[in-house]
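Feature request disguised as a bug report, sorry. It would help if multi-protein outputs had a clear separator. Right now it looks like this:
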Amino acid sequence: MFALRALRRRYGRHGCADRTAAFADQVKSELTDELPDEDLGQDLEDCLAVYELGSKPRCEEVEYLELVQEAIDRIDRGR
């Protein structure tokens, strides 16, 4: 019980959710740095859902789709 109180004091009741959101924001920020000309929005899965295949040169398209998917996977894994 003492350890739980110490964790609550350190992270708050929603510490895990806060850390998860902060990590997701960090990953999105890194992706924005890698793709500065793209308007990614808040939800990366929406970026993939509304993306029109063929709207970029093939090599750029592959890189874009891979980077966005890797960011989504990284957020899901939490690291």
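(second protein starts here, but nothing in the output says so)
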Amino acid sequence: MVLPVRLLWELAAATGRALDRHLLTPAGRFPFRWLLLPLAWAARTLVWGPLCRAARTLVWLPLGLLGRGLARAVVHLVWGSRSTR
């Protein structure tokens, strides 16, 4: 009685491994390789890249220029007033 049950169990386990190896794993790779990777590339190239360039051009560069201008003004006001005394 034990041997036929064990054989059925091994058959079920082998069938499960074969389904996993030949059906489920390739079916799981398909959406990742053909859907998610191209969407990630498109989002990175067409959305994130232009947003970063726009933020750098419209926000960080003017803030840097403003900061340098304020630093120069402070330097000239503080040390310029000391040198004129």
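Even a blank line would do. Unrelated, but nice: The helical segments are 2-83.
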